[in-house]
């Protein structure tokens, strides 16, 4: 390494490492530091420490000549060690650059990674006593990246309207790791997800938007590593600008940046949006006994919510030990810079914010008028992309479903719970289900939000898969090594009488479970709002009853590409429903239903029917024993207009959802609602599609089944 021994003054902005041919500028915000060193590492890990010579405002900076792209580096920050006041400076700990565009290496479980004394990985030590062992051999290194022009080939965001969006939640590694048509060297990588075999599957399924589990550079928790486990999901962020290096086939010295861009470009060329699941609510440094990897050693009292009664301790609204203090101006600036970077430089189309309520906390309370929400709403870049909130955290007042501002959509767990309860026969009637089917107006209409504010999901990465939802009453997380204590016990699942997958000798049970999966898929994909499909549910993926597979980087979590041949009707059903959804605006409304005709004397925009063929009465809406509901969607009653103000006309549809334990006969509505009907989907009757039925006809519904009819006038 041939670098100057004395850094030049450099510039205080931009933050991070900015490569230039003559010299690379380093800038770090550290307001209470007494000295900052940038540390450069040779290939043999020989370290060169250089003191940043200048301080402008609260930023330490200097330019170093001779530094090339791919150079590994870190910071050592000097200052007082005084946990009682929230200060945890320790220059023995090499720190990741918060603005690093790439990171090389992984975390090693060693006591030296902790800023406080910890005798061994099996002994917690005292978080108030400083440890002076060097952590550099055991922590990842930041990488200088040459942000050169990338050949985007005229890339443009697909900009799929919210009302037409179908989300597909998946994992870069898990989706590609076992795919037989993706070359072995590309499996588990960004390049693997960009491979034609992956793109062909995604586009053939009919989804519009890929939502990726975290791809920000993350590390596994040291205690996990010590016991031979790891963090597979990635909700343990270290660097908010860097693509996770383990997902790169090309390398980790900056190559991961271009590989990620190439993946986005390929997905866009296929017409697919890319949304990132982002974790700004906490970091990988955990609580007061956690490692010192970056933020804790730079400005602990600024980056984290500390306990005002004991500033050596942290307020934990996230369940991870710490909560990022996004209300602080510098921390808010970091988050906003990161978001803009992923949109502007990496071309992503939006974000799903993990535990978003934590980001809205000002001092302690959730404040939807606070700085984070306000800045997002005013930002000319971010207000144009998709914003999805996980609208809760684990702190007091953290449950905020239905409360986020207008630009936001939300994971609707009330939708999830209602659909699960209906199909397992545990719902108190059908009233709540009707709200969920029609867009959850009870949650979103009162503040003039739209139906697409509701992200409708039945399963997600956190919890059972859909196949497991109908196969297990209880979680089976023994493989996680936590004595089955981890993961929720509130699964709202039903094994249909036998715990675990049925044997081939029980075809009746297997058929019932398959029908129940089809029922939930049909319900979700025909509900007003934005459907989110968990990857693998369309092919019957199982996690063997594990409802918290965060540490399972193996066949438990990976896609099993032999399943489409075993359950072809699931994929066929999903493709049929998504084709229908794409073709028919009546099932993806942009405005809430009103339950009255659009034109005087016409049919209502939406109507609800009992099995007897009459409209639901107020008494029936409160009948807790009712298990069958008919939903009529009037294609001539769509309240939104086309781009030129023209009326939108469509076919009308009638959907029956019957969760009863016995077969039932329903009577179709009279001729006012339609002269005849055509079967589109019958989850209990293979080959019945296309069958014609007369108005007011009596139609048998098999126990626990769905029936979708197209109205023929």
Describe this structure in words.
Keywords: Glycosidase, Hydrolase. This is Glycogen operon protein. This protein has 713 residues and is an alpha+beta fold. Among the domains are: 16-144, Immunoglobulin-like (Sandwich), CATH 2.60.40.10; 433-571, no CATH class; 592-712, Golgi alpha-mannosidase II (Immunoglobulin-like, Sandwich). It contains 17 helices and 33 strands. It has an 8-stranded parallel beta barrel with strand order 14-15-18-21-22-23-24-25. A 6-stranded antiparallel β-sheet has the order 26-27-28-33-30-31, covered by helices on one side. Strands 4-3-7-13-10 form a 5-stranded antiparallel β-sheet, with no helix packed on it. Helix 10 (413-423) packs across helix 11 (431-437) and helix 14 runs parallel beside helix 16 (568-583).
Structural class: alpha+beta
Unreliable stretches covering 5 or more consecutive residues: none
- Largest sheet, strands/sense/barrel: 8 strands, parallel, barrel
User: In angstroms, what is the radius of gyration?
Assistant: 27 Å
| Number of helical regions | 17
Please count the beta strands (DSSP E, at least 2 residues each): 33
Mean pLDDT across the residues is 96
Question: Could you tell me how far the N terminus lies from the C terminus, measured between alpha carbons in angstroms?
Answer: 79 Å
EC number: 3.2.1.-
Pfam families: Alpha-amylase, CBM_48
Region (Disordered): 477-507
Biased composition (Basic and acidic residues): 477-493
């Amino acid at each position: 390494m041939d670098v100057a021994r004395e850094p030049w003054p450099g510039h205080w902005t931009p933050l991070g490492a900015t490569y230039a041919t003559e010299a690379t500028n380093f800038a770090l915000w550290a307001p209470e530091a007494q000295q900052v060193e940038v540390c450069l590492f040779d290939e043999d890990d020989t370290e060169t420490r250089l003191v940043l010579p200048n301080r402008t405002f609260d930023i330490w900076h200097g330019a170093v000549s001779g530094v090339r792209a791919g150079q590994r580096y870190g910071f050592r920050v000097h200052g007082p060690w005084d946990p009682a006041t929230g200060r945890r400076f320790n220059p023995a700990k090499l720190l990741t650059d918060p603005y690093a565009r790439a990171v090389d290496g992984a975390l090693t479980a060693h006591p030296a990674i902790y800023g406080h004394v910890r005798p061994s990985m099996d002994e917690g030590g005292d978080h108030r006593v400083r440890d002076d062992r060097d952590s550099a051999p055991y922590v990842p290194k930041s990488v200088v990246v040459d942000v050169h022009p990338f050949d985007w080939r005229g890339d443009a965001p697909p900009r799929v309207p919210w009302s037409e969006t179908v989300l597909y939640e998946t994992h870069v590694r898990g989706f590609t790791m076992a795919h037989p048509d993706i070359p072995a060297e590309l499996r588990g990588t960004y390049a693997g997800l960009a491979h034609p075999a992956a793109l062909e599957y995604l586009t053939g399924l009919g989804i519009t938007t890929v939502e990726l589990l975290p791809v920000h550079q993350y590390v596994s928790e040291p205690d996990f590593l010590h016991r031979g486990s790891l963090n597979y999901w990635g909700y343990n962020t270290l660097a908010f600008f860097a693509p996770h290096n383990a997902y790169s086939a090309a390398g980790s010295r900056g190559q991961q940046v271009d590989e990620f861009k190439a993946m986005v470009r390929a997905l866009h060329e296929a017409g697919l949006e890319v949304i990132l699941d982002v974790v700004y609510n906490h970091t990988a440094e955990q609580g007061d006994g956690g490692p010192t990897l970056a933020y804790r050693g730079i400005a602990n009292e600024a980056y984290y919510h500390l306990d005002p009664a004991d500033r050596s301790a942290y307020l934990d609204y996230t369940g991870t030990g710490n909560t990022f203090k996004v209300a602080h101006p510098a921390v808010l600036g970091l988050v906003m810079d990161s978001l803009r970077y992923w949109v502007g430089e990496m071309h992503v189309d939006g974000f799903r914010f993990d535990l978003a309520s934590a980001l809205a906390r000002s001092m302690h309370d959730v404040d939807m008028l606070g700085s984070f929400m306000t800045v997002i709403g005013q930002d000319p870049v971010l207000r144009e992309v998709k914003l999805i909130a996980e609208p809760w955290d684990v702190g007091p007042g953290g449950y905020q479903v239905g409360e986020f501002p207008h630009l936001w959509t939300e994971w609707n767990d009330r939708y999830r719970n209602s659909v699960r309860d209906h199909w397992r026969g545990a719902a108190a009637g059908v009233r709540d289900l009707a709200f969920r089917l029609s867009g959850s107006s009870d949650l979103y209409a009162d503040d003039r939000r739209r139906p697409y504010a509701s992200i409708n999901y039945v399963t997600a990465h956190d919890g059972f898969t859909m196949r497991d939802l109908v196969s297990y009453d209880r979680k089976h997380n023994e493989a996680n090594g936590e004595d089955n204590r981890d993961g929720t016990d509130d699964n709202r699942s039903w094994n249909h009488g036998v715990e675990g997958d049925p044997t081939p000798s029980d075809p009746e049970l297997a058929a019932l479970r398959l029908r129940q999966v089809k029922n939930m898929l049909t319900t979700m994909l025909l509900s007003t709002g934005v459907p989110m499909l968990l990857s693998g549910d369309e092919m019957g993926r199982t996690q063997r009853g594990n409802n918290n597979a965060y540490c399972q980087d193996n066949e438990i979590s990976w896609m099993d590409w032999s399943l489409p041949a075993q359950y072809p009707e699931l994929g066929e059903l999903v493709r049929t429903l998504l084709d229908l959804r794409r073709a028919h605006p009546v099932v993806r409304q942009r405005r809430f239903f009103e339950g009255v005709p659009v034109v005087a004397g016409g049919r209502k925009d939406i109507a609800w029917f009992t099995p007897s063929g009459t409209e639901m009465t107020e008494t029936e809406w409160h009948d807790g024993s009712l298990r069958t509901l008919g939903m009529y969607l009037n294609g001539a009653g769509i309240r939104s207009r086309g781009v030129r103000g023209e009326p939108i006309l469509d076919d009308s549809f009638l959907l029956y959802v019957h969760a009863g334990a016995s077969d039932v006969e329903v009577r179709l509505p009279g001729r006012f609602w339609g002269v005849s009907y055509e079967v589109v989907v019958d989850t209990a009757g293979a080959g019945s599609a296309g069958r014609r039925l007369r108005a007011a006809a009596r139609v048998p519904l098999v126990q626990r089944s769905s029936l979708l009819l197209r109205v023929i006038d």
